[in-house]
Amino acid sequence: MRLFRLAKIVAVSLRFGLDRMVLAADPSGTLVRIWGALFFWRRFAEPRAVRLRRALESLGPIFVKFGQMLSTRRDLLPPDIADELALLQDRVPPFPTDKAVAVLEAFYGRPVDEVFASFTREPVASASVAQVHFAVLHDGTEVAVKILRPGIERVIAHDLALLDVAATALDRLWPQSRRLKPREVVAEFAKHLRDELDLMREAANCSQLRRNFTDSHLLVVPEVHWDYCGKSVMVMQRMHGIPISRLEALRAQGTDLSALSMAGVEIFFTQVFRDGFFHADMHPGNIFVAADGRYIALDFGIMGTLNDTDKNYLAQNFLAFFQRDYKRVAQAHIDAGWVPSTTRVDEFESAIRAVCEPIFDKPLKDISFGKTLLRLFQTARRFEMEVQPQLVLLQKTLLNIEGLGRQLDPELDLWKTAKPFLERWMNEQVGWRALLRHAKEEAPGWAATLPQLPRLVHHALDSHDRDLATRTELARVTQAQRRLQRRLNWLVALLLALVALELWHLAGLS
User: Fold this and answer.
1) What does the pLDDT average to over 357-386?
2) Which residues does ATP bind (predicted)?
3) pLDDT in tens, 457-493
4) Is 125 annotated as a binding residue?
5) Looking at residue 232, what is its pLDDT?
6) Distance (Å, whole) CA 221 – CA 211
7) In sequence order, what are the residues at sequence separation of 6 or more whose Cβ sits closer than 8 angstroms to the Cβ of residue 185?
8) Is 323 annotated to bind ligand?
9) What are the structural domains of the chain?
10) Taking the model in full, what pTM does it have?
């Protein structure tokens, strides 16, 4: 099967001219001319990026997912390819209903009509690794049932093995590809894809995000029905709303698109800076809008996380950008160790200013964050900045926010919308508010530790006394060893003197 799959990949690559894209890296052009002579009948009217996207679509859902992941690595890809791959969506053909039913019955151990009061045979959505059906529980609750594609683990294992072989060959045969880090990219893709194959992990992500936005006026997240969930099946509350891409329908229901776009920015910054846990797959297919104007989040297979250090670093950099304090941005990168400590701050500051200054005081419609991010990464590479893996998903999410913002309100000023939120967040991280918050967080630990304080002090003093006694005894032994060594030295010297006298005496007698 693997050989058959490999043959198909090679055939599709030749049909869409992907081989020419690889050979085009030869600066002399000799390989392209030789290869073109061998396949003289092939003509390609479409641009290379379009051909790459169509090839990935032809190879199936796993390669579509790989193309989606690649589109986030604008630090590694040319802009035309990154833009085209960003068009890939999880709109793949569904698998047959009888297979979906078979998965459910194998998991529940009984007929699907006994598990649910009703089950819609036609899927309502189909993605790379799963598809969704609507159902109703016996208590009347409407739910959405997400079912993993049958046999997807085996297909993924084969495709990942082939991708790894291809990445290894590319790395060895094409030295210029090493800047693209093909093996690292494949490994990163494999990690995220394996996470998506466990629907219990996705259910946990959904539950966490729902808890973070309990009673929120901005975002609603479906409830998970844990009794019906497993690794291959996830059952959650059915959500009613309009896809965020259907602008006319949103206007018809009275949704304020300008307010919706501002709410989207606040949701993003709340997830990133307040929670450090954010939805990292916010393309239009995963975002709906409820009748009351709140966002509805769907599909929680890909979530990003940030620790306190990352959040603080990002907040300081965002605020510095808003204040056009490029020296502070440059110094923050050096302090974080993301660029070498030998980097000249003034040179790095000047390079960042050249990228960022032109985009200020412009509406969103005149700004491409994708191009800005790309230029920032190109600038950072000149200063040997290391790519931070934990921020790759954040970069992807920022690009999705850009796309949503352009659709909803092209005049949105992202800077003015985000700056008050970031300033408020920074104020909560320093000063008396932060002191009170940290005291509240640490209070349970203090309450448990205070009653033990006398015993801990006694233990510390006792340990100190034992350590002091040990050090004293060690010093005494060391001094004794030194005295013994000195005596041995004197004894050896005396013996040598006696031997010398005896030899002198014998020499006198002779």
Assistant:
1) 66
2) 124-132, 146
3) 666 666 655 556 666 666 766 676 666 666 666 666 6
4) yes
5) 95
6) 9
7) 69, 70, 73, 76, 167
8) no
9) 2-91 (no CATH), 93-126+129-174+196-238 (3.30.200), 241-429 (no CATH)
10) 0.71
Identify any residues that bridge with 242 across adjacent strands, giving them in sequence order.
289
Q: Is the dihedral of CA 186, 192, 193, 194 positive or negative?
A: positive
Q: Rounded to whole angstroms, how far apart are CA atoms 5 and 9? A: 6
User: Among 66, 123, 133, which residue's Cα sits nearest to residue 93?
Assistant: 123
The answer to the question of whether 131 is labelled as a binding residue is: yes
pLDDT tens for 381-436 read: 677 766 565 566 777 777 777 667 777 887 777 667 777 777 777 777 655 566 66
Instruction: Return the active site residues.
Output: 281
Measured CA to CA, the distance from residue 269 to residue 275 in angstroms comes to 9
Q: How far apart are CA 270 and CA 206, in angstroms?
A: 16
- Give the other-Cβ count within 10 Å of 360's Cβ: 11
Q: Residue 235: enclosing H or E segment and its boundaries? A: strand 233-237
475 among annotated binding-site residues? no
Alpha carbon distance 173, 170 (integer Å): 5
Over residues 305-339, the pLDDT tens digits come to: 888 777 777 777 777 777 788 888 888 778 777 77
